[in-house]
Amino acid sequence: MNPGHEHEFEAAPGLPEPLPQGEQLLWQGRPDWRSLAVHAFHVRKAAIYFAAMLTIQVLYLLGEAGPFPIASVATSLLLASVALALLAATAWMSSRTTLYTVTDRRIVMRIGIVLTLTFNLPLKRIASAALNPHGRTGDIALNLVANERIGYFHLWPHARAWEVRRPQPTLRCITDAAAVGALIQRQWMAVHPQAQVVQPEVASPAVPPMAEPQRQPEVVTA
Question: β-strand 170-175 against 137-144: which pairing, if any?
Fold first, then answer.
């Protein structure tokens, strides 16, 4: 994997250098920020938590003697709203600064709000992939070959949840995830013609499973 932080010097959007002759750009996209807010930054869960805490606070204050302290509840509501707004704003900024690129040879992830990183993932270094659909968007998690590893916190939130020991770079909350997954699979199979198809980690009728290669793919420099 080749990380870089040359966002301002991109040769093309999402690419730190021009594609080699003969390599074709097939797809580019970024996370849907609303879906990212829900599934990566857990805005919905946080909203439910704050609503429960506010309800408990109101019920408690109703049992107290004296006038109802509206200012106290209003302060709690304001703080909860600010917290949710910050989470949503972070999801929006994360989406705006992210660009995923799929070519016939690699997947490139340009990510990062403050420090921009570009991860170059040749298809030969990807062992398998899993599709996780959720509504109109979905995640595509990429399982790297055994000798490749990217730090979880370098990737987050563009990493598969709970896979900390073996982080999996993930195209998060993209629209038409099934179609993009099928595209990646076709290109992956072209790079691994000897592969045998196995069941995916997350089954999806729209995206046939990627395969595990019969042998360890050779490591090449993209």
Answer: antiparallel
Closest C-alpha among 152, 154, 104, 99 to residue 124: 104
H helix or E strand, kind and range, residue 173: strand 170-175
Per-residue pLDDT, 194: 76
How far is it, in rounded angstroms, from Cα 1 to Cα 147? 11
* pLDDT of amino acid 68: 81
DSSP string, 67-133: S--HHHHHHHHHHHHHHHHHHHHHHHHHHHT-EEEEESSEEEEEE-SSS-EEEEEEGGGEEEEEEEE
- Residue 52: phi and psi, rounded to 5, are -65, -45
Rounded distance, CA 12 to CA 110, Å? 12
The pLDDT of residue 7 is 52
Please report, as a single letter, which amino acid is at residue 57: Q
Query: 10-residue block means of pLDDT along the chain (222 residues)?
Result: 54 82 94 97 98 94 83 95 98 97 96 92 94 94 91 94 92 96 94 65 46 39 34
Q: What is the bridge-based pairing of β-strands 99-103 and 106-111?
A: antiparallel
Q: In terms of Cα–Cα distance, which of 42, 31, 25, 155 is closest to 98?
A: 31
How many residues would you count in the chain?
222
Structure token pair of residue 53: 């805490």
